[in-house]
Design a protein that fits this description.
elongated, Serralysin-like_metalloprot_C, disordered N terminus, little secondary structure, single chain, two-stranded parallel ribbon, disordered C terminus
Length: 299
């Protein structure tokens, strides 16, 4: 047990019933991925290394981040936004509207204002619109419509250099997954069917969502928050601080206020701190520090 306020927080090297909490709520971090919870305010947020029932939420809503791509949710405001690495029912929305981004091209929607805009790599019922008009972009050339204001919008049947822009900025949509961008305000937002350099942002900040787990970012306010399906460099933060949650136990950070608190599933360089001091807890017994007030206490 390690707790700055004296609550029953546990860190276990084998991943059974591990809890890490700044305020003493039942937050669990498990190395084997069963029933792991990490929560800044004590709600039932779970982070799981194997992808079962993972939740990460700054405000305690049921947001899920899953390493294997099943029922993953990432939401800064607690709406039911889903980001899935395998392309099943993925939703990414900065304002909580039902916008969907799917890596396998089924029922994909991207909208800055929450209208039902769809972008589909196979050309079925694709819509891209900054203001909610029924603009369609089709990769195979059937019923393609692109333009909200008549600026330089391009649609290509073979997926090369397709552009969809409501205000005329260089937004691109590509059926083959190369350099796809969809943006309501003209910022460089990218949506890619193959998982390379995908960006989806309601306000135009550099938020990335990737199906293969490389450099994935999901942020409601545009800060550099990352969520990765393969456990590389995953960050989930409601306020944009550098909090990291990793499915494979490398460089995992969980912090309620954005301080550099680290929790690692494999026991390397783990830190747990209620007030942001440099407290460390290690599953293998190397360099473990536990301090409620920031003094150099070691265990």
């Amino acid at each position: 047990m390690v707790n700055a306020e004296g609550e029953d927080n546990v860190v276990n090297a084998e991943g059974k019933d591990n809890m890490v909490n700044a305020e003493g709520e039942d937050n669990v971090v498990n190395a084997e991925g069963k029933d792991n919870m990490v929560n800044a305010e004590g709600e039932d947020n779970v982070v799981n290394a194997e992808g079962e029932n993972n939740m990460v939420n700054a405000e305690g809503e049921d947001n899920v981040v899953n390493a294997e791509g099943e029922d993953n949710v990432v939401n800064a405001e607690g709406e039911d936004n889903v980001v899935n690495a395998e392309g099943e029912d993925n939703v990414l929305n900065a304002e909580g509207e039902d916008n969907v981004l799917n890596t396998e091209r089924e029922d994909n929607m991207v909208n800055a204002e929450g209208e039902d805009n769809v972008v589909n790599a196979e050309g079925e019922d694709n819509m891209v619109n900054a203001e909610g008009e029924d603009n369609v972009v089709n990769a195979e050339g059937e019923d393609n419509v692109v333009n909200a204001e008549g600026e330089d919008n391009v649609v290509n049947a073979e997926g090369e250099d397709n552009v969809v822009n409501a205000e005329g900025e260089d937004n691109m949509v590509n059926s083959e997954g190369e350099d796809n961008m969809v943006n309501a305000e003209g910022e460089d937002n990218v949506v890619n069917a193959e998982g390379e350099d995908n960006v989806v942002n309601a306000e135009g900040e550099d938020n990335v969502v990737n199906a293969e787990g490389e450099d994935n970012v999901v942020n409601a306010e545009g800060e550099d928050n990352m969520v990765n399906s393969e456990g590389e460099d995953n960050m989930v933060n409601a306020e944009g601080e550098d909090n990291v949650v990793n499915a494979e136990g490398e460089d995992n950070v969980v912090n309620a206020e954005g301080e550099d608190n680290v929790v690692n599933a494999e026991g390397e360089d783990n830190m747990v701190n209620a007030e942001g001091e440099d407290n460390m807890v290690n599953a293998e017994g190397e360099d473990n520090v536990v301090n409620a007030e920031g003094e150099d206490n070691m265990w």
